[in-house]
């Protein structure tokens, strides 16, 4: 059974890299293993409990290379206590087979997007049979999924998935609302309230993130509804209008400050493990 988690503890997940931004356009983006581990350490010290990881190759391009993913999980475990979540979303160009193989790197957690989404001019493909295969694989491999919800229809898909295949490994159900993607639900308080109201009863915790200029409205709405926060350069590249983000730590520090206003304190990695049902 899960240990009760302090209701005043706020989980801050950092998503430091993503797959969409080019290093050449944004040199602060952590793309090498060394940069990623240093970023993770800084963000952990600032108050993050979990890291959502996309990796890059030697040319700083997105990759799902299994050797690199495995080395990354190991390096993050050695260098930090953060819960390590690997993205199974990858980039919009990654084949579904490669995205399933991400679980071979044995992360603590994996992202699992609940449906296909228009993603700017691209399509982020998550056909239902793939969602089911990835979910069952996460149960087999004992990897705790984080359900990524880009749209209200994906909340309905989560009901179907849990009804059909039961609870995730570990027994917790943690979701992340990814709002404000052009093609997904808007990053507004109204949309957040609607999505949270529609979550399945099995959900034990949720976070939210708003892309780009929706980052603050979504964070403030999430805090007021009792949710957790995801922040990082995967989702936003400016700290305020016209001012580029200097580091992921800066975004984590801002999340901690927002949490303090809401009388929350950062959740530790150990508490995050307890929240998500991840074995120590
Ligand atoms: N890069 C996006 C196409 C995830 O990490 O699972 C998908 C994404 C979601 O970032
Ligand atoms: Zn991602």
Automatic annotation (TrEMBL):
Keyword GTP-binding listed: no
Keywords: Metal-binding, Transferase, Zinc
MF annotations from Gene Ontology: 3-keto-5-aminohexanoate cleavage activity; metal ion binding
Top-level taxon of origin: Bacteria
InterPro entries named in the record: Aldolase_TIM, BKACE
Cofactors (names): Zn(2+)
Coiled-coil ranges (or none): none
Protein name: 3-keto-5-aminohexanoate cleavage protein
